[in-house]
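Form 12-C: Joint structure prediction
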Amino acid sequence: MSDKRIIPIVMPKWGLSMAEGKLASWLMKDGDKVKVGDQILEVETDKIAGAVEASEAGTLRRRIGQEDTIYPIKTLIGVLADDDVPDADIEAFVGAYVVPAAEEGEEEAGPRYEFIDTGTGRLRYTKRGSSDNAVILIHGFGGDLDNWLFNADALAEGATVYTLDLPGHGQSTKTVADPTVGGLAKAVTGFMDAVKVDKAHLVGHSLGGAVAMEIARTAKGRVKSLTLICSAGLGPDINMGYIDGFIGASSRRDLKPALENLFADSSLVSRQMVDDLLKYKRLDGVGDALTALKNGVFPNGKQAAVLADALKSSGVPTLVIWGAEDKIVPAAHAKAAAGAKVEIIDGAGHMVQMEQAGKVNGLIKALAGG
Amino acid sequence: MARKISMRQAINEALDQEMTRDPTVIVMGEDIVGGMGGEGEKDAWGGALGVTKGLYAKHGDRLMDTPLSESAYIGAAVGAAACGMRPVAELMFIDFMGVCFDEIFNQAAKFRYMFGGKAQTPVVIRTMVGGGFRAAAQHSQMLTPLFTHIPGLKVVCPSNAYDAKGLLIQSIRDNDPVIFCEHKNLYGIESDVPQESYAIPFGEANVVREGKHVTIVTYGMMVHRAMDAAAQLAKDKVECEVIDLRTLSPIDWDTVLDSVENTGRLVCVDEAHPRCSIASDVSAKVSQEAFKSLKSAIQMVTAPHTPVPFSSALEDIYLPSAEKIAAAARKTMAN
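Section 2 - Result
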């Protein structure tokens, strides 16, 4: 059957609330050869803009979706196939395409937010995939589990992927009893106990990277590998202007310029992204939690926990990824990770896992088998 | 965690959480419990439209049914606020405020100023506003501009459940008198509202839709009609930026002016009468501060300078509609 080699390109679903997206532009044209990981088109949602990447190789045979047009998720917007598939088969595929319905018990296809009580309080998390190989994604200061919007699904193809909100963040408890890297590390190992994961690949972004390194230092037996993305914990420097600006901003006008520091392309900071973060920052207790963390993690404007030596002596396989244009933690800190594989990615800032998701996902998969 | 609840539930939750957090918060008004002589929860009316229902069972006598005398109990609430309590008084319809203007305009709004900053009056007056409820001329008015005119008062008018909860919590925590205007046609609309407490700062408008061609500034129920108009206009490639003021005193001029500087066109939408309204106020400010940015004359879409009609056919024509807002936006695009 020739239709085995016809691969639909559909409107993706990024995050739990996405119902539709705008096809902003095609980055390739009909007849172009596509390799796995190539960016085929750009999509904008009310939360974020991003590129849709090829999950399989082939030739872009049909661009069905129109630019500047909004489509519901899973709508067929393009077709990838081998060159020897006849046009007639492609026509038939397009004509017969039916948007897959949500599976039984599955709301709008995708994982749900779940909550679990741990020693450090109630934490929100998501779980994707079902494999013995666990990957845990740990966000940074002021972030939440949606920082992994473009990563979690891709990594879940070969692993069970957990994302969580650290204490003081997202929809987890706003009480941070021990606002240090050590305290957050205990929160994550407590989470691993609660979801019955003994050992996992840890992927940490920014402050989450320092947390992952601390777990490797104190509980090496629970860490299969470390992926440190624009990570704290490798040197003393931190952009305190950003940290103070993020904590202090109570309006859209103040928060937006602070958030623009996170990306190489500041236009990625959407109205909805600012709005969602303001909603988080307005919750009772968040201001206190962030201030306590700032004082615990960055006292006197420097990172308190520099763990590069401990990282080396732990012997845990380590991958370091950095956005070349990171304005929060300098990419030069990557040099401190002796013995690690280091990848500096151009055209990306601190949120490299969002700005260059395909490359980051590929690197993590190679290490963690996701 | 967030879940969808109605504006009615969001207001109830804000009162409940603030009463739990702060023992000085008390709630008073006509029929807010069960009517005089009622037997608590089982008889509770929870106010004319059930907003405070269930609170008496949790907080008991910190909710007080008052006699049908607005001047007496609003005066009592203002006095209690001056003495250290945080009263939330429900004055059923804003249309009835006239009988207690002295307590509001001359007492509550003046204490901080006249006592050299040594007195504060953290009172909230919750009240229903607006038309479309077939409630006739004495129960349907949008009298927000009367209160924005008075220095010393803060005036809030949320358009959705999320804002209602955060703005009411801020109103209760605020140390000045706040007129909290609840549009009676919005009680049923639902939005995502966190279970946790949160406060939305005053003077912070919400940009509910971004666009580069026309700015529409409004508040309350008109936000929804402006969004409908913006959706209609988007089909013709006219992109509207819709600003929900959320608080009318203080008002977020920066967000309005920034937007008009980008779009060069402004439509002010107000459910109030046209003269000395929020719409005319915003028009005047933009003319003064951003005149050079304007590419066409500012348009206003308001109710007419007449009482709200009782006839449902007339009331529908009376209120600004999405069609009228869209027409006004097109007019700004014509030149």
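Section 3 - Comments
Residues 29 and 90 of chain B are 5 Å apart (CA to CA). The two ends of chain B are 48 Å apart (CA to CA).
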